Amino acid sequence: MRASERSLRAIINTIPTLSWSTRPDGYVEFLSERWLGFTGLTEEQALGFGWAVAIYPGDAQRLLEYWQGALNAGTEVDVEARLRRFDGVYRWFLFRASPLRDETGRILAWYGTNVEIEDRKQAVEALRASEGNLRAIINTIPTLSWSTRPDGYVEFLSERWLGFTGLTEEQALGFGWAVAIYPGDAQRLLEYWQGALNAGTEVDVEARLRRFDGVYRWFLFRASPLRDQTGKILAWYGTNIEIEDRKQADEALRASERNLRSIINSIPELAWSANPDGYCDFVNQRWLDFTGCTLEQVLGWGWRPLIYPDDEAGLLRFWQGVLESGGAGEYEARLRRFDGVYRWFLFRSIPLRDDSGQIVKWYGQNIDIDDRKRAEEAVSRNERTLRSIIDTIPVTAWSTRPDGYVEFLNQRWLEYTGMSTQEAEGWGWATSLHPADAPGLARYWQACLETGTPGDIEARMRRSDGTYRWFLFRANPLRDESGKVVKWYGANVDIQDRMQVTEALRASERELSLIIETIPGFVWCAAPNGEFNYLNQRILDYTGTALADWGNGGWTQFLHANDAELTLQAWLNAVATGRPHEIQCRLRRSDGNYRWFHMLGAAARDGQGAISRWYGLLLDIDDRIKMGDTLRNTEARLSRATQVATVGEMAASIAHELNQPLAAVVASGNACSRFLSAEPPNIARAREAAENNVRYGKDAAEVIRRVRALYKRAAVEKIMLNLNDVIGEVLRLLAGEFAKRQISVEKRLETELPSVPGDRVQLQQLISNLLVNGIEAMDSVGDRPRKISICSRMSDADTILVEIADSGVGLENPEKAFEAFVTTKENGMGMGLAICRSIIEAHQGRLWAAAKTGPGATLCFTLPTKPETA
After folding, report:
1. What pTM value is reported for the model?
2. From 3.90.550.10, 3.30.450.20, 3.30.200.20, 3.40.309.10, which CATH number describes the 377-500 domain?
């Protein structure tokens, strides 16, 4: 072996990395002593292709295929795999190699290194573990969540989703979930969802979802695609967030629009909005300040001259494409600042749609990315430079004299720092260190020189473009036979990515903590045995306590005395069974007052299904409960007032109905007197007349009983009733009113209807209100017969349907007719139909106005035939 080769090998063997070289066909002909020492293999065992035995079996096939591809293509090698240490332990390494070519470009040899990255891999695993913990927390937050395949086929629905809708997993998976969507929203939602699937865009849409009891409530449907490294969608993940209260507050939101504009003007971004056709109708103050323009100058299409000329055509094509597709979009272009300087911005736009899916507004923002673009351009320039480096060792390497004086820096090091050899040799290289790291590195390096121990330290090194990146500085001494240090050899390994992973992990933990502490509710966490081990600051501030006060069951002292036992038993049952916890209870505030809270809890489980932790929320519902009590009291008083008013309006009918049996009593009495005065007395006919008197008296008493039942404020008492009998009673009560107003009544009552559970008085009031509405709706009708029809029939196996139709003026807005205080009558209170709907809902039925092509209105209601179950 030539002396130069021995010297080169000695240099390579002292570089603190695992080095090797191969022939053009990949046959290994050299492995550094550090490589052999790490694996424990001899040179005879490892040369050629014997080195492959040290590769982790699970990585070997992939690594060999990658290596063969690089040999065939002549491209740089940069791949990760595990390498077996001499003690049998596998550790992760970064395999890097570059070809050495002659002047014709023919590959003469390959040179490579193996850089240990075990610490970085462990940091990545820690990040994944943190993400898994975050996912567990999010999965247990009480929201409705789901996931689908790339084509939208639902393959998972959370238990909370299934519990809310009352559907089973078998019913809802695939596309079965659509049955829970409000019919009026279904077509729009499905078309939006299909569009998002086709475009791969984020989902953000509102629709109503049917609860298990048949009630529809508004939800915000949100979903995002999960993509692989190539951008291919692997799955969709989404949540349904209830926004019923927000929908009710829309009016208040619109009233605060001016305040919102003020907020938008103060956010640190350039924001704007446009009409559906793309006409710009608003830019915030920060946008105007940046460009130095007035609002009048940029409205419409006046913003175009502010775009860099080379970018304008592309931006306009992008904007036109977004307008045509109706989807959100992003585009990069340069925008002129007030001083004439152009800066790069990310133009983002997103549409706002109404309930029918039509775009009503475009909103967007311009995000300054000029610094990022410049950094990207600098990186690109650096990469082009690196590709031209002839030094095939893929690390920045260097060597020094025994006293630390640098006498060699490889080309990769010089290219990275942008320094010349003359500038960097000696101690000039230290100027490339970050000022904050230089003193510590200098002290550490001096200690290594004095003690002769290998060096291993992290510091930032300035790149040629002025950017600092983290490097691992490694150095080993070369000693002569006497042990004296004759030279130092070192390498700087770029660990910026590892540092970023570590920082991302810390940021993720900070973000998780911030989310939990800023959620507008009381968040808690408990051990599997039910002991509370975390309470967010909102709970502690509300109760004026510390976490220690809640241990060993001490939390029950903050509950209202009437709620403590029930709440404790519910929680113990949840802990014992693992089922979700949900209950309403009163919690004492620090000032001694109690407020109602909705307590929610769910268990997080490990891979074996065992409970690892409990997560939950406490939601303040005190105002909602008090508002509900007030509403029910008001409704009861209004219902009573309507009853009294109805009885007053029916006074003439009542008098007419009483007059008939009383007149019959008088006639029968006179007949009885004549039969007794005859000679001889006609006892049989007189007895018959007396019996008729008794029957007519009972009829009059029944009329009085029905009137008293309507007038009396009796408690609701549900019994099994014949609905046709109730209809007949009301028709008899209103018979005089029908006759007075010349209204014909058509009855089509299906015989042998099953009984329904209900309160007779409330159902009488319901039918009476509907009939009186029909009577009054025909007061102004003179060009057609006045007619009311009432029919009853089975709607399905367990439901009776009643329809009441009139030939009156009809309903202008059928839906609003059922709202409280909405009336078309000059002196009406607007509570009749609202109370009717309350009565129907109390009986688990449904009331609506049916579509009708001719004059008049048809009101329908259904009642279940089976009693309500608890």
Report:
1. 0.28
2. 3.30.450.20
